[in-house]
Amino acid sequence: MSSLKDIEKRYFEKLFGMSSGYVLDFTNATFGEFFRRYNVNIHGPKYRTFGTSKAKKLRAFWESESDQLVGTVLSEMLGSYQANCELNGQSVNRSNEKRAHILRRFPNL
Q1: Closest CA to 27 of 53, 65, 9, 48
Q2: CA–CA separation, 2 vs 8, rounded Å?
Q3: Domain extents in the chain
Q4: Which residue has the higher pLDDT, 56 or 106?
Q5: Residues 71, 108: contact at Cβ < 8 Å?
Q6: Of 18, 57, 66, 93, most Cβ neighbours within 10 A?
Q7: What is the mean pLDDT of residues 74-79?
Q8: CB 70 within 8 A of CB 4
Q9: CA separation for the pair 89, 25 (Å, rounded)
Q10: Residue range 85-96: average pLDDT?
Q11: Backbone angles phi, psi at 9, to 5 degrees
Q12: CA angle, corner 22, sides to 50 and 33, nearest 5?
């Protein structure tokens, strides 16, 4: 179980647009591909604790995995967010620094 605090989760939920059930611009296929890089079957029953949307699966992932794995995945997702902003001519959310600060406390990042 990761030590990600509720307030920290809120920062990432807002940034990734999770209130709609989505996560960034991932489709079901690309979400699965992303997690396969970490040997995680995000569409498997383990991550359907809260439901089947990508956002609910990510929340279950946060609850069930180690700080190291959660930190690594969040760091790469944060990089994806930044790249999407740059490629689409959008500004990066100002609270991005807060998220980077949160990730610094995770091991091996």
Answers
A1: 53
A2: 12
A3: 6-104
A4: 56
A5: yes
A6: 57
A7: 92
A8: yes
A9: 15
A10: 79
A11: -60, -40
A12: 90
CA–CA separation, 79 and 34 (whole Å): 13
Mean pLDDT of the chain: 90
* Rounded Cα gap, residues 37 and 39, in angstroms: 6
First to last CA, the chain: 18
Structure token digits, residue 89? 């001519």
Exposed, middle or buried: residue 30 (CB in 10 Å: 0-12, 13-18, 19+)? middle
- Cα separation of 72 and 75, whole Å? 5
Amino acid type, 60:
A
Between CA 54 and CA 20 the distance in angstroms is 10
Both tokens of 104, joined, read 């610094």
pTM (whole model) above 0.90: no
- Tell me what pLDDT residue 1 has: 81
Tokens of 83: 């790249």
The mean pLDDT value for 22-43 works out to: 97
